User: Which sequence fits this backbone?
């Protein structure tokens, strides 16, 4: 890379992105959470990106929102909180926070999560604290959690840069240039760099529909993953599993995109039928800390061994979050030919990095990935093989030479991925 | 004023204030709300001043706070909310907001309010909406409201600049220079520009004690205000009234300063014994709008007529907020020789401007300004003459030639203010 921009040059380029950023805000409101007239809207976002949040809020009101509630986050305050507050405090989600999330969920709110934070914000913090806080929230904010999980509330995660994140992705750049570069990358991979992102997303969704039709047609019994990096894993699927991806719908039929960007076609595997070894191909950023060069060994679905060159304790806290966080809840298929992968960037943010590569997730599975699953109780889901946990953590396994073979009910083998891309070349 | 600073010069000067700003944060935490070990702390502040908030939060934890909750405000989002949300929505404070404020108050939290906003943030907004929202909050968040009003929770209001405010105070300056100048003014008038602001505040409080001792010793029946601007007003005081000012104490004895800066010695007058005319000497900034050149006429305590050259509808909404917002709840005495007055600045913010000048307030009075008042019910307070309302709005009447005469129970006349300053020259 050549000589760097001056701050003034970076500011001018940032200003030049304003139309694209405005269209991106509109995309998030209209397609991401698809705000309906009279609806409550909740936007969670970093205070550093208030400029973008104000756009989102204005667009939400234009779309007919009855009221918008903004939940602000700040890396530095999170760090101060985890540094100074005792672990036991995090066992309880404050009553007002429970009431906030539950009452808004019950009122039918759409939830937009703007992700943007310093990947190293919680370096050196005891990972048990954020894990406890997340677990408490998921356990104690039942109406909220089930509203999102069972399709009663539309929701979407979109990205927006903050400087500490941008300089992590572009460590060689001054902060304003890094911010500009990260904004540009975010717009590009969200297919929001053109003149009509909403039309782009219609096209994009059509590709998802085709991949899902093919996979659901095969109704595989299992997938076998093999790679030269040592991965040799068999993932058993549930009877009646459904491949999902792209757009989703609430139970009352409102279309929304849970992730923007999204490139993954995914299902929930049978929690008890995975065995073998899998090697991660990218670092895992979790709760402000990083796990690098790690692997997991499964037997009858359970993680029985694991290792990491860096962040072993973080990986341990993930695996041990609760009694079922050691089982898989998701397997997701993503071609290596996506805009995210093609940027060549490591985003240090799951929304992006999980969409760069085939991945698996430890923790809770998706009711919508099982026939009849959305009306099942947790116990019924478990009986059918869909894992239930208070956590869900993705990790990337899509090496460039990854081969995935589908094994049909009758034992026939069907190539699904060859050399890291769809065997039937639809995307 | 000469030529203006470059942005770089302004940034360098701002950086040069950092030690003072840190001491100011410590002053707010240690003297303002006087955080106790194990206490919950709540900080309300504009997102634009996150840098200052992070200092406050760190200082609160250093002082032993068990947990700090930050409530963020943003002028632009407030404006979008009032523009787009219907009036009836504001009749109810959301259940979670009630739970938030009430549960934290019941847990004994100290509340620090960082005031800093664009004085014109709500220009053109129907003032009934913010008035409704404020009334709903005060009515529906009882534990919170009474915790602050009856001395169960320590609280303090301190200022911190945002750019739109700074450029209103310094309209001739570029925004970063204006921000620097407003920070410097805020530090100066908060007596936080020296090396030991906490010692400065001990001295300052000693002056308050002396003024209060003299006033409480006289136990006046009434005060008469006269000025060449047309003011001719008699304010009847309550039997058993108490002059307060400077530091306060919670019911369990924790010292705190409700306002930083503060220059006022104040009491609650008898709500039914004010008559005559009073002219404001400074604009009134209320709910993001401005009232200029206004006057009020009282009879038997009630506002019976009023006029304003600008913002009449805002004044009307204040007077008509509820059935008792047309009575006085406060009269406050402030010498014209204070740092605030001497800056010569109009701050467009009540915390500062009310401390530049003798003032009165429409709306609720103070239980602590009546003997035995803090344990009285609302009805008892009303019976003793202390007004009770859902609002409290100060307006400035301290002209340079203001004369205030105290009338004793036996009819004797005692000079209290001569030419806008204390007749006994203690400050």
Assistant:
């Amino acid at each position: 890379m050549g000589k760097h921009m001056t701050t003034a040059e970076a500011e001018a380029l940032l200003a030049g992105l304003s139309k694209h950023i405005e269209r991106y805000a509109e995309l998030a409101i209209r397609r991401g959470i698809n705000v309906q007239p009279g609806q409550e809207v909740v936007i969670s976002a970093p205070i550093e990106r208030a400029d973008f949040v104000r756009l989102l809020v204005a667009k939400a009101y234009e779309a007919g929102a009855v009221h918008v509630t903004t939940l602000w986050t700040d890396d530095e305050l999170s760090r101060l909180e985890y540094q100074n507050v005792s672990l036991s405090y995090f066992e309880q989600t404050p009553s007002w926070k429970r009431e906030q999330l539950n009452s808004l969920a019950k009122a039918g709110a759409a939830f937009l999560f703007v992700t943007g934070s310093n990947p190293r914000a919680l370096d050196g913090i005891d990972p048990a604290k954020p894990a406890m806080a997340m677990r408490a929230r998921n356990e104690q904010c039942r109406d909220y959690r089930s509203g999102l999980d069972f399709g009663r509330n539309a929701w979407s995660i979109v990205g927006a840069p903050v400087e500490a994140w941008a300089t992590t992705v572009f460590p060689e750049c001054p902060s304003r240039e890094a911010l500009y570069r990260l904004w540009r990358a975010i717009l590009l991979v969200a297919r929001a760099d053109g003149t009509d992102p909403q039309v782009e997303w219609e096209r994009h969704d059509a590709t998802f529909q085709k991949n899902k039709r093919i996979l659901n047609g095969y109704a595989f019994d299992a997938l076998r993953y093999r790679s030269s990096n040592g991965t040799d894993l068999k993932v058993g699927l549930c009877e009646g599993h459904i491949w999902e991806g792209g757009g989703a719908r609430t139970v009352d039929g409102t279309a929304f995109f849970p992730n923007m960007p999204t490139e993954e076609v995914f299902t929930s595997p049978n929690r008890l039928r995975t065995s073998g070894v899998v090697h991660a191909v990218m670092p895992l950023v979790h709760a402000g800390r990083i796990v690098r060069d790690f692997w997991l060994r499964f037997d009858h679905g359970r993680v029985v061994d694991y290792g990491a060159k860096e962040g072993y304790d973080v990986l341990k806290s993930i695996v041990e979050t609760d009694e079922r966080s050691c089982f898989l809840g998701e397997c997701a298929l993503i071609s290596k030919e996506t805009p995210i992968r093609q940027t060549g960037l490591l985003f240090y943010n799951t929304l992006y990095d999980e969409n760069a590569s085939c991945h698996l997730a430890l923790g809770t599975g998706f009711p919508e990935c099982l026939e009849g699953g959305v009306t099942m109780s947790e116990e019924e889901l478990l009986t059918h093989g869909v894992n239930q946990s208070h956590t869900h953590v993705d990790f990337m396994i899509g090496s460039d030479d990854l081969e995935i073979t589908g094994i049909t009910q009758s034992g026939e083998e069907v190539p699904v991925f060859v050399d890291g891309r769809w065997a039937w070349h639809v995307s």
Notes: The two ends of chain B are 31 Å apart (CA to CA). The longest helix of chain B spans residues 197-218.
